[in-house]
Design goal:
The structure is a homodimer.
Chain A (H helix, E strand, L loop, with lengths): L5 H5 L27 H4 L4 H16 L7 E8 L5 H7 L9 E5 L5 H4 L5 H5 L7 E5 L8 H4 L5 H20 L2 E9 L2 H13 L9 H7 L2 H15 L6 E5 L3 H18 L11 H9 L2
Parallel strand pairs in A: 1-3, 1-4, 2-3, 4-5
Chain lengths: 283, 283
């Protein structure tokens, strides 16, 4: 019996009564194997992921009606492993089928539009797996914590986000929202590593230490956002992430589940195979 | 002694007197190892490639003045392995540092501009490795073969391309242009495979067989394009590609060479390390 499954991953769904404090960042829920060998646990599904990704891409290229896309939204505190997730999980996919977008502070042009404008601009193409490194959730996280937007505006955004994501889902996008949940102690360790190695200095920003003073406010903002925007067609998963290989495994299984649920097959030939074989032989 | 080197890869440079007919698509020039074990030959440089890619990205993030980019242009006949190159070579890089663009037939909007407009739009960001799957060279290849543009206009484009690429190079882009050189027999085999397997039908286009009738015209158009646009700062490499692992190895070494030539180092800390350690310890 496998040590983990898509069903196990989906148990991390943020449902009614969700409380962030109930989830230990160090834990590895539902994983039945050896925690120290987690790195190798998820390799076995790479082949299936790769095949399903190609099938999705093929359906787009062959213009099969109803072909959808996948959107993975990654959120988490600094050093929670968003970059590593992209490198190690998304990096095993074929880059031709991946649409990656990172959202930093908005540019002047982006600020001239509503907060979802830049998000819509970066939505994955049909047949592609989109990955958002941060997202429209920053507009209800940092904006709530630092009051960058009046609270009554922030309050409206939860509903706007639900509507937006519902529209995406209806248009055929499988949405997977992942909060990489880490502890403040784990973040301290990670930041210290960035100060210890010259090849990590570039990742260090003194402002990250200032933000630690707002840890509890961020946790609260996350809890509110997750509770209000986790829906059946745009689910949030709260993934304990002090153990990085565990978090990566979970995301792989969530992606696998999304791809399987599309119930795809290879596009049929839209030409007569024997005719083409004869034509080719004649060249 | 290694079986291949960056110096070996650079010997495939298209220089004066280049003749495509002199290069056998089946050959594996300068490779001194066992051809059947080529798949494993290039793995040893993955670690260095990965480190240099991260360093390039780090220099961009740290806003180090003069940070450049890399642009790999992939051209070749149908089934020459452009997609596989992206999947297997570019796919081993961190997707966060890769800017990938595929150029198909131009859209109406693209046709409303000069032929370099859509190319400029997709140039890699500073600190990134850009990969073009087809490129502005289609405008002197298929356009020449099928006279989609009057010949006198096509003739002007070689100079425009040289100027454009020279400007890019001066702006800090290391350009690597690769022609994946295959034989018509190898293409026939590849097309037959697409007719043999249901998971390959989507890649087959009956028009690809029609294009085989123009094989010699394409070879001539390639030869002209390569001769006229291979310059020291925007070199073409003609890479025999009937042996796919060989072609992939060559591109890895060319990329390695470009990254090494940037002579980078890790960006220095722009903060006092001890101060930050103390601040962090206090949180």
């Amino acid at each position: 019996m496998a040590n983990f499954s898509t069903g196990d991953a989906k148990k991390l769904f943020v449902g009614p009564g969700f409380s962030l404090a109930d989830i230990s960042p160090q834990s590895t829920p539902h994983f039945k194997g050896d925690k120290d060998k987690l790195e190798h646990e998820f390799e076995e599904i790479d082949k299936e992921l790769s095949e399903l990704q190609e099938m999705l891409y093929a359906n787009w290229r062959a213009k099969v009606p109803g072909t959808g896309s996948v959107l993975i939204v990654l959120q988490g505190m600094d050093t929670s492993g968003k970059g590593g997730m992209i490198r190690h999980v998304i990096g095993t996919l074929d880059p031709q089928g991946v649409d990656l977008a990172a959202f930093g502070p908005p540019t002047e042009e982006e600020k001239a539009h509503d907060f979802l404008w830049r998000i819509r601009n970066k939505l994955p193409r049909i047949g592609h797996i989109g990955v958002f490194d941060r997202s429209h959730y920053e507009d209800v996280l940092i904006h709530r914590v630092h009051e960058l937007t009046p609270l009554e505006e922030v309050e409206k955004r939860y509903g706007m986000i639900r509507d937006f994501e519902h529209e995406l889902a209806k248009n055929g996008t499988r949405i997977i929202k992942v909060m990489l949940h880490i502890s403040p102690e784990f973040q301290r360790e990670n930041l210290l590593k960035r100060l210890d190695r010259e090849d990590k200095y570039w990742k260090f920003n003194p402002g990250d230490i200032d933000e630690r003073a707002f840890w509890d406010d961020y946790q609260q903002a996350y809890e509110i956002a997750l509770r209000r925007t986790s829906t059946p067609d745009a689910p949030w998963y709260c993934v304990p992430s002090d153990n990085k290989p565990y978090a990566r495994m979970v995301v792989k299984y969530l992606l696998l589940d999304a791809l399987r649920s599309m119930d795809m097959s290879w596009p049929p030939a839209d030409f007569d195979i024997e005719t083409q074989r004869r034509r080719l032989a004649a060249t």
